[in-house]
Amino acid sequence: MAADNRINFWRRNPKVPGSVQPVYGAQHPPLDPRFRRTYPKDTKPKFNNLKSKKASTFHEFARSTNDAWDIDDEEDEDFFLTPGPAPSLSSGLHSASTVFIVVLLDFLIFFVWPSTVRSTLKKQQSLPVRPIIPLVARISDQNASGAPPMTVREKSRLDKFKQLLASANTDLEELRKHSWSGIPREVRPITWRLLSGYLPANKERRELVLKRKREEYFGFIEQYYHSRTDEHYKDTYRQIHIDIPRTNPLIPLFQQPVVQEVFERILFIWAIRHPASGYVQGINDLVTPFFVVFLSEFVTEDVENFDVAALPLDTQRNIEADSFWCMSKLLDGIQDNYTFAQPGIQNKVKALEELDAGTLHHHKYEVEYLQFAFRWMNNLLMRELPLRCTIRLWDTYQAEAEGFSHFHLYVCAAFLTEWRKEILSMVDFQGLLMLLQNLPTIHWGNEEVGLLLAEAYRLKYMFADAPSHYKR
Amino acid sequence: MQNNHHKEHLYKILVIGDLGVGKTSIIKRYVHHNFSPNYRATIGVDFALKVLNWDQETVRLQLWDIAGQERFGNMTRVYYREAMGAFIVFDVTRPASFEAVTKWKEDLDSKLTLANGKHVATVLLANKCDQGRDVLTNNGIKMEQFCQENGFVGWYETSAKENINIDEAANCLVKHIMASENDMLQSEVPDTVTPQLEKDKGGTCSSCFRSQ
What does the UniProt function comment say about this protein (chain A) (predicted)? Predict the structure, then answer.
């Protein structure tokens, strides 16, 4: 009943007071989170309230368990914090209209301009608009090879990143803002290390932190890895051991014994340090993007077929430790996806059902959201998208304040909407469910992910600004 | 509906068991007639459809491939809903996966009953039989005893890799599902006395055992 009213409301009122709805196609980084906090209490986004309530319940649960989530991995983060510009609470200056104009400009620059450039190129060189991607999709960013030379805009973006990264204290807020619409391949490894909170903003300290964290990780290995054969842990290890050969089974890189051993160590150490969840299937997928991105620093050709054993041992070890820590940081933000009964996933699947007003709600075949969207949440859409798209997606997730936990929901809603036409054309339950479990994204690249993120961004603000209409 | 010339049946069948026992491989073999050693771990549930010609009738099997990890156990209730039959799979090379069979059976029976209050027909699959035989499955009498004690309608040694006994096991399950369906149709109208027609494929329990 309530849901029906809500749907009708949105149908009848395309213009919702206070929403920034016209920003369709936005590629601009999201509004400063501080901006949202300046709302009067009563208009505070309902969803956020709900979430923090849940989080506190989880916190109670977490406190009652002895878990590495409780251990302060950031013991010296404060120490490294440098007196940056104090967070100005007057960011309310970003009035909605300013944002709208900036967003509109970005829209023009990102979508309209490059497409003209592309079509000109096409005429000149009779190149296909999109590089042909083999069935076993290439991992690396489309920009890496086979793409036209860097445009002026891409070049200036890269320069901006380089400048930010080279400064004595990297302005993380600024770095996030630029990362939202995609990080250039050359600077992605270091940017990911910074955005995940693994590396400090202070440039001088970075080497030291890296050295210490890498040693710490290999300390864990020395101390705990032998316990994988213990009665207590052998089941965890066995599950990991079964899953590793079937992680990315079609990509040769992941069939190399050296790489499989890296994954086993990372997952085993993480699992025994987080007994509240332990190893949950799907977490194995989450190591992949980090591993590929950190490996890409040392590989000029395609990563997919690279022989990792040919790298110096030190380099291999550094990639492993960095992947471990960055994955740990990611999981810290979505821990309730993997604890008992997986409340994080259940809540997000329910929320997806609420957000989806136009596709499955109108379908006569009653597919349950849990039947397809469980995997979307548990594996962060990694099973639905080629790896190169996941990497691009994670640029934005790491630039967003709660990218992996909160923004991901809106991305899922946008993803569902993307297939509206196909979904509505299905004539039976079987066809519908098989479509939803095998959405044809094999050809997807940066462009499609960009549009998906823009739609997710629009949804996020549409629902955040209309809290009273987002009722559970 | 009463037209017997071309009757259609639609059955939801669950495939459950511990992780890595070969549930996905069995379904791929059965539906797509192929095998790969490296299917990715199932997350949540995967869905497949198999259409059978059964005498003059069409049988559509909805196969629900349910993730085997214990952590996902809370979701099973949603996935079990309205199922008519089930395969419980274990890996003959891993005794622990056989120990989990009774756990899966209990989970299934506690969350799912037919309209007449009975449990759904369940067939036990001893998979990966191409990789050497388990001591237990060597002893057919013991296995049949295990099936009777635990409410399985039959058991098969299977190999998705070598395509052994998959079709046979599925036919056995379908036979039992049809039998229980007839059973329910009759109990739906208890005041009416309907003459029972003898059907070739009505199927009794013992007709299904491979040993016979």
Answer: May act as a GTPase-activating protein for Rab family protein(s).
